[in-house]
Amino acid sequence: MALAATRIITAMATGLLATAATSFSGDGPSPEPAPQIRPYIQASSMVNLGAFATPNGLLAAAAKAPAAGSFARAGTFTPNNSVATDPTLAPPGTGGAMASERNLFGTMPIHSISAASGSHRSPKRTLATPALLTGGGGIGNSAALPTAAGVGSIGALVAIFISNGTPEHPDAGLLIGNGADGGPGQDGGNGGLLFGNGGRGGDGVATVNGGRAGNGGNAGLIGNGGDGGNGSNITSSDNIVAFGRDGGDGGNGGRFLGNGGNGGAGGNAQNLDRGGTVGGTGGNGGQAGLIGKGGNGGHGGVALAGSGTARGGQGGTGGSAVLAGNGGDGGGGGGTNSNTGNAVGGNGGTAGEGGLNVGHGGHGGDAGGARVGGTGTATGGNGGNGGNSHALGRAGGGGGEGGNASAPAGTGIGGNGGNAGHGGIGGSEGTGGLGGTGTGSNPASHNGQSGSGAA
């Protein structure tokens, strides 16, 4: 019995010693787990939206983006030797080489850290690549942040608000940008609502839109209106009348700050046979903004005829200022010549008015002259009236001069001068335009009268 008890006690003591041996390691306390080093990530590419448009030269928006990467397999590491390294940021066991730079728009690789040789610690578990979720919004291999197509969509969105006009879309972006110049016979594009100039109207071409000229585009808040295009020249024969096409109107300046665009010139008309000719009318100048000058009227077209009557085109009306600025000048009338018929010069255009607080009225357009080679009558056009001034102490705009007339074998009648514009409070009237001279063998020939106003 005593021997059996001794054996039981010995077995129990041996078990306790074995348990103690497994509870304490001969290597001392276990070291703290090494912190997991995340790969150092640096953006190798940035989104470039391009340079934005300015009022004078706004640029189209653009966007670039790198292609998205995919998750690396656990336990793998592929260095990128084309990028700089930083030894202080390298994970242990890489020999001082930094983890490869990754694109911020790609997915992040996840590395496993193997256990050191001879260590009692087990390797850390790797993070498996998650499965692609469907049905919206999941994170998976294909759920990388915006690709090049996505950033391109951002650029397209920006271009809606900030961009210059193009031939396909003449108007600028909604907020900032310059309108594009119009093609043949097309209107110029409008500038952005905040900043930007209007585009120039296209010149008229006989085979496009009947030869009409395009109007200049309007500015938004700040910017200048575009000039109008020139009307198409028209030539006919036999007894068909040739009509030069009218010039396009200038666009309006920005509502707050900007000059009105100038009107385009009227087209010339020619028929050296029996038919008559009529020059095109010059386009009207655009209106100025609160601060700015009105646009000048366009010049009337010239008319040339053989035995028919030639009539010059009338000059366009000048645009007016609003608060501070000068009115635009009226356009000049078109000159005329007929070999054996009659000729009538074009009238000058009326000038625009000056601003309410600062500025003066514009000058009336000078009339076109007339000449005949036979016994017909040549009549000079009448000068345009000057614009009124409203600012304190400012004189009115001067009237345009009457056109001269010459008919060596016939009758020459000079055109009348234009009337001057009224001055502001304390200001005088402008100078009236001089009448044109009329010369001819017929005693009925005479000069034109001068317009009213200061001498």
Amino- and carboxy-terminal Cα gap: 155 Å
Approximately how much helix is present in the residues?
under 10%
> Which term fits the overall shape?
flat
Flag low-confidence runs: 1-6, 8-14, 16-146
Order of helices and strands: HHEEEEEEEEEEEEE
Q: Bin the strand percentage.
A: 5-15%
Lateral arrangement of strands in the main beta sheet: 1-3-5-7-9-11-13
In short:
With 455 residues, this protein is largely without helices or strands.
Describe the structure.
- The chain is mostly loops and 455 residues long.
- It has two helices and 13 strands.
- It has helices at residues 2-23, 148-161; strands at 234-235, 242-243, 269-271, 277-278, 303-305, 310-311, 336-338, 343-344, 370-372, 377-379, 405-407, 411-413, 438-440.
- A seven-stranded parallel beta sheet has the order 1-3-5-7-9-11-13, with no helix packed on it. Strands 2-4-6-8-10-12 form a six-stranded parallel beta sheet, with no helix packed on it.
- The chain is flat.
SSE order and pairing:
Layout: H1 2-23, H2 148-161, E1 234-235, E2 242-243, E3 269-271, E4 277-278, E5 303-305, E6 310-311, E7 336-338, E8 343-344, E9 370-372, E10 377-379, E11 405-407, E12 411-413, E13 438-440
Parallel strand pairs: 1-3, 2-4, 3-5, 4-6, 5-7, 6-8, 7-9, 8-10, 9-11, 10-12, 11-13
Primary descriptors:
455 residues; little secondary structure; six-stranded parallel β-sheet; flat; disordered N terminus
